[in-house]
Amino acid sequence: DLEKTSDGLYEILQHRVEPLRGYIARFNQEKVAIPECSIPTAISTFKRGLLPDGDVYKELTKYQCKTMEDVMSRAWAHVKWEEDVASRAK
Questions:
Q1: For 18-61, what is each residue's pLDDT tens digit?
Q2: What residues does each domain of the chain span?
Q3: 1.10.1200, 2.40.10, 1.10.10, 1.10.15: which CATH number matches 6-88?
Q4: Can you give the three-state secondary structure of the chain, one letter per residue?
Q5: Comparing C-alpha atoms, which of 23, 7, 26 is closest to residue 15?
Q6: What percent of the chain is predicted at pLDDT more than 90?
Q7: Among 68, 77, 56, 74, which residue's Cα sits nearest to residue 32?
Q8: CA nearest 71: which of 16, 15, 27, 17?
Q9: pLDDT at position 17, please?
Q10: 44-49: long-range contacts at Cβ-Cβ below 8 A with a sequence spacing of 24 or more?
């Protein structure tokens, strides 16, 4: 059984109609299977997989995060906003 490498993270891309929550879940599922994934690699692959015109991508480009925790806290803040907007539209 070959160990997964961080190369697999580059293949995780957010789909145009996919909620951010779904992208985060798919990314994290792949990331936990990679024992030797460096923090800079995890951060850059997460950002690279985001929709380039999305708010999270813009925020992560403007404000450099040093940890995955910081990246995820910013991303989850956007998930809450996305879901709040969606629930208000119902």
A1: 999 999 999 999 999 888 889 999 999 999 999 999 999 999 99
A2: 6-88
A3: 1.10.1200
A4: CCCCCHHHHHHCCCCCCCCHHHHHHHHHHHHCCCCCCCHHHHHHHHHHHCCCCCHHHHHHHHCCCCCHHHHHHHHHHHHHHHHHHHHHCC
A5: 23
A6: 77
A7: 68
A8: 27
A9: 93
A10: 45/6, 45/9, 45/10, 45/12, 46/9, 46/71, 46/75, 47/71, 48/10, 49/9, 49/10, 49/12, 49/13, 49/14, 49/23
Tokens of 12: 């995780």
One-letter identity of residue 42:
A
